[in-house]
Design a protein that fits this description.
Layout: E1 23-24, E2 27-36, E3 39-46, E4 49-57, H1 60-71, E5 80-86, E6 93-98, E7 103-105, H2 106-110, H3 117-137, E8 140-141, E9 150-153, E10 159-161, E11 168-169, H4 189-197, H5 207-223, H6 235-241, H7 247-250, H8 256-265, H9 277-289, E12 330-333, E13 337-340, H10 367-373, H11 454-460, E14 469-472, E15 488-491, E16 495-500, E17 512-520, E18 523-532, E19 538-545, E20 559-562, E21 565-570
Antiparallel strand pairs: 1-2, 2-3, 3-4, 4-6, 5-6, 7-9, 8-11, 9-10, 12-13, 14-16, 14-21, 15-20, 16-17, 17-18, 18-19, 19-21
Helix pairs in contact: 3-5, 3-9, 5-8
Length: 575
């Protein structure tokens, strides 16, 4: 089947050929990092170097990202090193060879240490504003600026703008009929006004949309709250009519000058905001010139991690040689609630109980396969709508130049010896696999059949097997906007309720899945056997957490501290 973008459903595309260690387009897949829509991102290796390899089903979605990244290759954003089609015969994917940026998303970085106002401006906002200005100067609008799409690079602490899958530029194919893709909480007033007055023409994205989104992001980082609420409230009306509480009033540690700068970025009329990057940079630098000691006060306290409880050592089973899981990017949910995008290496959740094997470096790929993928970045005057020989293509692709060399590539940061590399999009907290959190969890329950009637329930609500659905392991109203919304404590074997976030197919928002949590060495697993609608009607169901949830420092064999935002998936049997 194909979706509205001409792309195929995920389950029909992804099979064992994408397992770790397999070869794709001349690269050796190491681990799966991320999932966005129909695409996947893998940590991959070739010739001893690491790359982020993005696979997008054939269609216009991936070509837009290639074209956008070709235009902004001189900006301080993630680098496109090459692209091609795979397999060579009857290609099914557009493959993007991307720079591997080792680091963590901005919102994760913010919570790892006390951050003060001067640091936010000098280390994050100024370089990010300049990078976004370079993107706009190249004729590209990102259209999804938010914390999750900014990675704080580990080796120099600088922000890197990533994920241009929704980007727009002159002549780019349309993705949606009315409003551009993106996160609703970050949409600009002018975009929403257009939607209300739309008379048949698609909205034309403009740089002011990105500057507005940057203002929303800044407000969230300064206050840890959404300026206009989330999509479950009167979001559109608030964006169009409501003036948010000043950041320096909501959080008295925010300097007034910085709070007022943020409010100006959120003015309803575009002409009342900062017009472009130079204007915003000038305003920030002026605020810094007048900064006093209050700019060095941390905006939030970072709570100390609790001491782990002593645990009784238990005999351990012989370890199985399976790869350790890694954790990809956080997606912003309503801006404030960061969500772990739990991307499994295989369809079924792993029952990993042993340590990972040593990293094995593969030899360089055969020359013919490598040459078939390596591409020159085509001139920016050629767009995704023009194919070789200027012939019209049913699914237009960027113009490849076979067997040409890449542009000069900067050396990639190598992973620490003896350690599995950490992906650019990963690591939300230290795993409970360290010596400080050594545990001996009880064995996971054995495989089991699903409850009778669960298959019919899944079909009734249109829930697809192995499709990830977003939820939270606690009542959302008690978490969103609180300082501990990324940390809850759960116990091994305890009953668990997962509340759905947004609608899942035909399943209404705020439906509840009831089940049980289990601890393992690679994190917290969950099985769910009952589904209850907001109306109170109940059905049997067969679902698991899509991937084990990584535990945070302070976890023990009896209790685990985890991020409550996760994904659930329907399964045909319990693994």
């Amino acid at each position: 089947m194909h979706d509205g973008r001409g792309e195929q459903d995920g389950e029909e595309l992804w099979g064992p050929e994408f397992a770790p260690g397999r070869q794709v387009a001349g690269f050796t897949l190491r681990e799966r990092l991320d999932t966005g829509g129909a695409s996947r991102v893998y940590l991959a290796e070739r010739g001893g170097r690491l790359f982020a390899l993005k696979l997008v089903p054939m269609g216009q979605w991936g070509e837009r990202e290639v074209d956008a990244l070709r235009r902004v290759r001189d900006a301080a954003v993630v680098g496109l090193l090459g692209y091609g089609q795979w397999p060579e015969t009857r290609p099914r994917f557009l493959v993007l060879e991307l720079e591997w940026v080792e680091g963590v998303p901005l919102d994760v970085w913010a919570g790892r240490a006390p951050r003060h106002a001067r640091q936010w401006v000098e280390q994050v906002l100024l370089p990010l504003t300049r990078a976004l200005g370079q993107v706009h100067a190249a004729g590209v609008v990102h259209r999804d600026v938010k914390e999750a799409n900014v990675v704080m690079r580990q080796h120099d602490g600088q922000p890197v703008l990533v994920d241009f899958g929704s980007a727009a530029y002159e002549g780019s194919p349309r993705l949606t009929k009315r409003l551009p893709p993106g996160t609703p909480e970050y949409r600009s007033p002018e975009m929403l006004r257009f939607a209300k007055e739309w008379e048949g023409e698609p909205y034309t994205s403009r740089p002011s949309d990105d500057w507005w989104a940057l203002g929303v992001m800044l407000y969230i980082l300064l206050t840890r709250s959404l300026p206009f609420g989330d999509r479950h409230g009167p979001l559109v009306r608030n964006i169009l009519q409501h003036t948010p509480e000043p950041p320096h009033v909501k959080n008295p540690r925010v300097p007034q000058a910085l709070g007022e700068l943020c409010l100006r970025m959120l003015e309803k009329a575009p002409e009342s905001r900062y017009a472009d990057a130079p204007a915003l940079v000038e305003a920030m630098e002026e605020a810094l010139r007048g900064a006093d000691d209050t700019w060095l006060v941390p905006l939030f306290d970072v709570e100390p991690e609790p001491e782990p409880m002593p645990v009784r050592a238990e005999p351990q089973a012989a370890p199985r040689r399976v790869p350790r899981k890694r954790w990809p990017w956080l997606l912003a949910l309503g801006g404030a609630a960061a969500v772990l995008l739990l991307a499994p290496e295989a369809h079924r959740p792993s029952r990993e109980e042993g340590p990972p094997p040593p990293r094995i470096r593969s030899p360089p790929p055969p020359p013919s396969q490598q040459a078939g993928f390596r591409q020159e970045i085509a001139p920016v005057t050629r767009t995704a709508e023009v194919g070789p020989g200027a012939e019209l293509m049913k699914s237009p692709l960027p113009v490849p130049v076979a067997q040409a060399t890449h542009r000069e590539e900067k050396p990639m940061r190598k992973p620490h010896p003896g350690r599995t590399p950490v992906a650019s999009t990963v690591v939300t907290a230290a795993a409970c696999l360290s010596a400080a959190c050594a545990t001996a969890p009880r064995p996971l329950p054995p495989p089991a059949n699903c409850p009778p009637g669960s298959e019919e329930s899944a079909k009734r609500f249109g829930l697809r097997l192995y499709r990830p659905y977003l939820g939270v392991l606690a009542p959302r109203d008690s978490l969103i906007g609180t300082k501990n919304m990324y940390r809850i404590t759960v116990r091994d074997g305890a009953r668990s309720t997962l509340e759905t976030l947004t609608e899942w197919a035909q399943l209404p928002d705020r439906s509840l899945f009831q089940g049980e949590l289990y601890f393992a060495r690679n994190g917290v697993h969950g099985r769910y056997t009952r589904l209850t609608l907001p109306s109170g009607e109940s059905f049997p169901i067969c679902a698991t957490l899509w991937k084990p949830i990584e535990t945070q420092p302070g976890s023990t064999s009896e209790k685990a501290i985890i991020n409550p935002f996760t994904y659930l998936t329907v399964v045909p049997e319990f693994p």
